[in-house]
Specification:
The chain has 445 residues and is mainly α. Helix content is 82%, strand content 0%.
Length: 445
Amino acid sequence: MQLKTSYRQIVSISLPIMLGSAAQNVIALTDSVFLYHLGENDFAAIGFVGVFYLIIAAIGYGFSRGGQILIARRLGERNPLEVGHNFYTMFYFELALALVMFLFMQYGCYYFFQLMVDSEIIFEKSLQFLEYRSWGVFFAYAGVSIVALYTGAARTTFIMIDTAILATVNIALDYALIFGHWGFPAMGIAGAGLASTIAEAVAFLVFVLYMLFDKGARKWHIFSLPKFDLRQILQLYKLSLPIVAQAFVGMGSWFIFFGIVENLGERQLAITNLVRMVYLVLSIPTWGFSAGINTMVSNFIGNRKRQAVVPIVVKTAWLSWVATMLITLPIVLFPHFFLYPLLGNDEAALIDDANQVFYLLVLILSAFSIGAVMFNGLIGAGATWFGLKLQFFCAIGYLIYIYFVVNFSSGGLLWAWASEIFYWLAMLGLTIWYLRSKRWHALQW
């Protein structure tokens, strides 16, 4: 595909990614809604362990983003033969990484959670969830490899369809396995873990079938296994490792945030999980535009059109902000109207208690929707190591701020969530400085 800098093409590429790249968000939202109806302790627990699993998912997604950028670059260079090589390099690496993550979740999380969690109830329920959820990492990591292939090629329509299948299967199985309907056992939070794993397996198999019948995929040479190429593995590793580290730092700091908030009590953790659930939904447009800008920037550089990079990044950032505000303002201004159909009236006080933080989400999402897209434009240009350093120092400041607000001030939950604003404003400012410096022009890979 010959890419342009028009708003129409930005939307045509980003919209399917917007819905498709939200797979883990969709699963997390579905699990949270059903467990809310099961009990407040289960809802609080999924808030904690759900963020932990998002970190695991983000590690695999980070490596796939490196593969996506390489594939977009090769297509920009009109070198389709290398696309298949890049895909298999990424796919094999993801499977090996999935095995490492699975073993950690099965045998290491007991000791890791002991260091993080004070509540015995949250601790036990988190382990119950991971007992089944850990198996899904194989399908998740293999699946993001295929998504990266089609995203890098700017052929994103089926990603949206596959995510709809995943969401439908997950909703049906959550209903059956959490509460014990349709003859299934009532497994509680463990049922949420099993339902999500099965949903990921189904979505992966459906995408594989689509690939087998996709004639357009044949020109990428993905149906013939390439020879082992250490050079390509090292290239993928060099490009992707900083992206993975960025995801780990970003999601890890959020996980620590939940661990610190847990010290305020299970009620405060439940409120934070409700806000997180809303945040995940409202962030979907930004993640779509962020993944889209990776492909567009890398493709333009492959076509030797570096002068188009900054304009396309700025246009995409503004589109991201407009799309985010269009869905954010109604939900923030009328949370009861939108959340009661999902959560019911039994625990209406939880929504009332979260109102102040909901208002704060407007500022948080404004900074995030622009900052994340600008930052991912930088990543698409190949400046992954600079991005890692930038995110690391911003995350350190973010965690120091949260620690002092929660433990040494009376600011409470509202000021703890305000850390998101400061974090993304710092990221945005430093990203703009780097893009304007033109240092990324000298990057070669």
